[in-house]
């Protein structure tokens, strides 16, 4: 674990350095408050810090206050080192954002014990952050396929429409549905059905670039959004996706399963200023046409109203939702 | 009942307490004394100039720094003298600074030979 020592007294720095190296820390030592603050504000900077109270440039409490104003970064556990002993000064130090204080000359055992308290606090914070990230992932991803769920896709799509309109770029929405999926579930069981959906998700992800996105729209329906995709190339890209699904069987626990998908495609040049719900309705109609045409094919959406590219502002429905 | 320790004068150098604080690391102690040998005379010279002016802010800062150095090395009597000078300077008592500085010099003069003797001993 990295630890920062900030002290303008070379002797005290050396003492601390040695005591902390013995305890297994990776020690970074600086001699003023400005250098300390710069290091603590780095993304991969130390999360444990021992700060002398009186230092050139910025004093210890000043460093604590500055660090605490940066709420976006991981918690930093800071201990003030002081030869000051009064209650008022202790209170002032803690009020500046320090977690603890240690009076000089310090005892090495006490120092290490106090830093272990800091490590426990940091570990607790890491666990809480991890739990929050897991919850965030679960709230935005489909548990079976780990793709974005419908809500997350709608949010991203709204932003993408906004962006492509603003930047006058093209994008494409592809809606796909696994053909005869009910038959897979009925004849081979739901576990195989789940395997099919998982592999379909993997293949869809394998067909897109890092800045495109794929989501599970619901049941056996998937949505792919191709960002900044030239309208001339969008049908070709959708065809590649269709072939990636149908070209080889999916290997399941009960043997290979041949799967095809039907697709509807809507290109950005055709959506003009329509609300998102209407766009999705149009691409859904195209998907329905593909089903009606015998499945395992792609149909392009034919919007009833053409684009009005010169007419700002962006409609309310396409505004960024937070 | 009073603690008998209160009645005993502090030693010039509390060597045993210092060794315990550095986990009995003689090599580290030698390093620290070398740093001290370099930093202490320089800081004392700056402090002497600040007291002569008198520059209260610099006197406070430098005597604080010396207090830290001296107490880190177990020179508690000299550290107390530096602390007294720091208190006077931060209280703005310019007239008392010179006497307090002389007192610090006196304590340092009895501490430094102890450090030197230790250095000579560990070198043999």
Shape of chain A: elongated
Q: Hey, roughly how much beta strand do the residues of chain B contain?
A: under 5%
The residue ranges of chain B in which pLDDT falls below 50 over 5 or more consecutive positions are: none
Mean pLDDT of chain A: 88
Largest interface: A-B, 17 and 21 residues
Task: Indicate the radius of gyration of chain A in whole angstroms.
Answer: 29 Å
- Report the sheet with the most strands of chain B, covering strand number, pairing sense and barrel closure: none
Q: Provide the succession of SSEs of chain B.
A: HHHHH
Main sheet: strand order of chain A: 2-1-3-4-5
Distinct helical segment count of chain A: 10
Helix content of chain A: 40-55%
Describe the structure.
- The complex is a heterodimer of chains A (322) and B (124).
- Helix content of chain A is 45%, strand content 19%.
- Chain A is built from 10 helices and 12 strands.
- Chain A is elongated and about 85 Å long.
- Chain B has 5 helices and no strands.
- Chain B has helices spanning 15-21, 26-52, 56-72, 76-90, 97-123.
- In chain B, helix 3 packs antiparallel against helix 4 (76-90) and helix 4 (76-90) packs antiparallel against helix 5.
- Classes of the chains: A alpha/beta (322), B mainly alpha (124).
- Chain A binds chain B through residues 8-12, 14-15, 18-19, 22, 54, 83, 104-108, and chain B through 21-23, 25, 28, 31-32, 35-36, 39, 61, 64-65, 67-69, 71-74, 83.
Short summary:
The complex is a heterodimer of chains A (322) and B (124). The two termini of chain A are 37 Å apart.
Descriptive tags:
heterodimer, A: about 325 residues, alpha/beta, 5-stranded parallel beta sheet, 5-stranded mixed beta sheet, 12 strands, elongated, B: about 120 residues, mainly alpha, 5 helices, about 75% helix, about 0% strand
Element layout with pairings:
The complex is a heterodimer of chains A (322) and B (124).
Chain A: E1 2-6, H1 10-22, E2 26-30, H2 33-40, E3 48-52, H3 60-68, E4 77-82, H4 87-95, E5 100-103, H5 108-140, H6 150-166, E6 172-178, H7 181-188, H8 190-207, E7 213-218, E8 221-226, H9 234-246, E9 250-252, E10 255-257, E11 261-267, H10 276-292, E12 298-300
Parallel strand pairs in A: 1-2, 1-3, 3-4, 4-5, 11-12
Antiparallel strand pairs in A: 6-8, 6-11, 7-8, 9-10
Helix pairs in contact in A: 2-3, 7-8, 8-9
Chain B: H1 15-21, H2 26-52, H3 56-72, H4 76-90, H5 97-123
Helix pairs in contact in B: 2-3, 2-5, 3-4, 4-5
């Amino acid at each position: 674990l990295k630890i920062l020592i900030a002290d303008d007294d070379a002797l005290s720095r050396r003492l601390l350095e040695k005591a902390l190296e013995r305890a297994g820390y990776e020690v970074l030592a600086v001699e003023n408050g400005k250098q300390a603050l710069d290091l603590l504000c780095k993304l991969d900077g130390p999360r444990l810090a021992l700060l002398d109270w009186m230092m050139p440039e910025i004093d210890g409490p000043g460093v604590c206050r500055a660090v605490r104003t940066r709420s976006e970064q991981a918690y930093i556990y800071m201990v003030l080192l002081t030869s000051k002993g009064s209650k008022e000064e202790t209170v002032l130090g803690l009020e500046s954002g320090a977690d603890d204080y240690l009076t000089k000359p310090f005892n090495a055992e006490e120092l290490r014990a106090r830093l272990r308290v800091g490590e426990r606090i940091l570990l607790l914070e890491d666990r809480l952050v991890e739990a929050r990230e897991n919850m965030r992932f679960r709230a935005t991803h489909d548990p079976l396929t780990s793709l974005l769920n419908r809500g997350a896709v709608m949010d991203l799509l709204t932003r993408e429409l906004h962006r492509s309109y603003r930047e006058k770029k093209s994008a494409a929405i592809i809606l796909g549905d696994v053909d005869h999926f009910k038959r897979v579930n009925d004849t081979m069981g739901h576990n195989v059905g789940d395997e099919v959906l998982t592999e379909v998700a993997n293949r869809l992800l394998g067909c897109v670039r890092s800045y495109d996105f794929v989501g599970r729209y619901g049941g056996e329906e998937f949505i792919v959004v191709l960002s900044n995709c030239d309208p001339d190339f969008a049908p070709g890209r959708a065809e590649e996706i269709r072939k990636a699904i149908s070209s080889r069987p999916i290997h399941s626990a009960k043997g290979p399963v041949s799967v095809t998908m039907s697709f509807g495609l809507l290109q950005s040049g055709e959506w003009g200023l329509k609300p998102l719900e209407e766009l999705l309705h149009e691409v859904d109609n195209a998907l329905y046409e593909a089903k009606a045409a015998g499945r395992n094919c792609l149909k392009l959406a034919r919007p009833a109203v053409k684009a009005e590219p010169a007419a700002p502002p962006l409609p309310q429905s396409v505004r960024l939702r937070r | 009942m009073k603690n008998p320790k209160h009645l005993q004068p502090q030693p010039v150098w509390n060597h045993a307490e210092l060794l315990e604080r550095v986990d009995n690391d003689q090599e580290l102690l030698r390093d620290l004394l070398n740093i001290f040998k370099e930093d202490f005379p320089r800081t004392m010279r700056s402090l002497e100039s600040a007291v002569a002016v008198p520059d209260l802010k610099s006197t406070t800062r430098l005597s604080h720094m010396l207090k830290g150095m001296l107490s880190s090395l177990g020179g508690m009597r000299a550290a107390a003298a530096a602390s007294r000078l720091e208190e006077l300077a931060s209280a703005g008592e310019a007239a008392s600074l010179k006497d307090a500085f002389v007192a610090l010099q006196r304590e340092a003069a009895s501490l430094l030979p102890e450090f030197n003797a230790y250095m000579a001993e560990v070198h043999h």
